[in-house]
Write a structure and sequence with these properties.
60% of the residues lie in helices and 0% in strands. The protein has four helices and no strands. The N and C termini lie far apart (53 Å). The protein has helices at residues 2-20, 39-58, 63-77, 96-109. By secondary structure, it is an all-alpha fold.
Length: 113
């Protein structure tokens, strides 16, 4: 059942983000909390589908959208200094040009003087 509905949720999340002009998509994760599922259940029934949803939303942007988002992060969170641009997890299965856009934009735009 979850595998059948996964493409629907991906399409719905992306289309709503585009329609609202907001690249952020909220995914509540309370069902994956410790104690709700045994590790084997989590690995079998929860994580594969959540991972696919997350990765498909991360791979739809263009390098320009990535650059714009990086600049916005730096402008908003970096006011006054002290902001550190870093990924929270390893970049798996994303467009290489998008990773390059993150790194280049951060090097170019995210330097405190």
């Amino acid at each position: 059942m979850p595998i059948a509905i996964t493409p629907f949720w991906i399409k719905k999340g992306v289309s709503e983000a585009i329609a609202n002009g907001n690249p952020l998509i909220f995914i509540p994760l309370h069902k994956g909390a410790d104690g709700f599922l045994f590790d084997e259940q989590f690995k079998t029934f929860y994580w594969p589908f959540l991972k696919k949803i997350i990765m498909d939303l991360l791979t739809v942007g263009t390098p320009q959208q990535v650059r714009d988002h990086v600049k916005n992060c730096i402008d908003v969170a970096g006011k006054g200094g002290g902001y550190i641009m870093a990924n929270g997890a390893f970049f798996n299965d994303v467009k290489p040009e998008n990773v390059k856009a993150v790194v280049e934009t951060t090097k170019e735009y995210g330097v405190y003087k």
